[in-house]
Every structure is written in structure tokens, then in C-alpha cells.
Design brief:
This protein is mainly β. It has no helices and 8 strands. The protein has strands spanning about 1-5, 15-25, 35-45, 90-100, 105-115, 130-140, 140-150, 160-165. Strands 1-2-3-4-5-6-7-8 form an 8-stranded antiparallel β-sheet, with no helix packed on it. It is globular.
């Protein structure tokens, strides 16, 4: 997907965003499936704007973007440790999805990726990595999601893992 703001469209900020996101489901044994997901997201300022507004930048960590890490904990931060967001994000995920019943699914996952500021180059060596397990319960009120992610290489002072809860449908 893509987005353009400013320029001939007017507005207070001139920037563009491109997000490439792909999911591939591969049947395994019986109803078990392997899900592979890759996302590359890029944003850049142009024209009169010097940088992409913070509310349009990319963040990492949390339920949908590298489980096992706190929300917005991956990527550029200021001197106080506050998330600044980045201009590039790469996320790679693999999941084995095991249906237990029509309404309940169990999964195991491996996530990796990172978020980079405008002056940083993508470096696979900086990728954050996590493994974990999760469950999906389909109810008449919607999908309930629970995941537990464990960091494979944590930094000093970081927790070893994180539990994530979510509600809503998968596409």
C-alpha cells in the first residue's frame, strides 16, 4: 500500500509511505498450516518537510510487530528512552498454526525484525528475535488472541518475555 501527503495535495506535512506486506499459508499435516509473513515499510519526507511526522513513523514491538517486546520498544529512541519511530521497518514472521477445534487454534512462532531511523542503514545483525506460543479463540463476539513471546537476545535491563492480548479479526 502507499500514501502521499502534502505537495500538490496541500497539507502541513510533505511525506510518502510505502508498505509491502505479504502472508503465505502453506498446508502441512491435516489442517495444520505454516504461515510466513514479511513486511517492509518505508517513509520519507520531501518538499518543505525536513522529517516524517512522529505519528506517521513506524514503531516496533508488541502484538503485531515482534512479539515478546513491549509496544514501541524497538527502534530509535530519544535520550530519555522515549520512542521516536523510524522511517523503515522490517518484520519477518513464521508461525505453525495447529487447529484444536473449529473455534480454538494453538500456534508457535518465530518473529524477527527492526526499525531504523532516517540516517540508519538496514542491518540484519541488529534484528530483534523472539519465539513463543499463542492461542486464538473464535467467539460470537470476535477473535480473542493471546501470545507469549520470549526474546532470544535481550539487552541488559530488559525482561525476558512478554504476554500480549488482543481482540479482533485476522485477515
Amino acid at each position: 500500500s502507499g500514501e502521499v501527503a502534502g505537495g500538490i495535495l496541500q497539507g502541513n506535512n510533505d511525506f510518502y509511505k510505502i508498505i509491502l506486506d505479504h502472508n503465505l499459508y502453506i498446508p502441512l499435516i491435516k489442517d495444520t498450516a505454516l504461515r510466513l509473513r514479511g513486511e517492509y515499510a518505508y517513509a520519507n519526507a520531501y518538499g518543505e518537510s525536513a522529517k516524517v511526522p512522529i505519528f506517521e513513523r513506524f514503531f516496533g514491538g508488541g502484538f503485531d510487530v515482534i512479539r515478546g517486546y513491549d509496544e514501541r520498544s524497538i527502534g530509535p529512541q530519544d535520550e530519555n528512552g522515549e520512542a521516536l519511530g523510524g522511517n523503515q521497518r522490517i518484520v519477518l514472521t513464521s508461525e505453525v498454526i495447529i487447529p484444536i477445534s473449529k473455534e480454538f487454534r494453538f500456534l508457535t512462532f518465530f518473529d524477527m525484525g527492526d526499525v531504523y531511523g532516517p540516517d540508519e542503514d538496514v542491518d540484519i545483525g541488529t534484528f530483534k528475535k523472539s519465539v513463543g506460543v499463542g492461542a486464538r479463540l473464535y467467539t460470537p463476539f470476535g477473535l480473542i488472541k493471546v501470545d507469549w513471546g520470549y526474546k532470544l537476545k535481550r539487552e541488559e535491563g530488559e525482561s525476558a518475555s512478554k504476554v500480549h492480548f488482543g481482540f479482533g479479526s485476522l485477515f
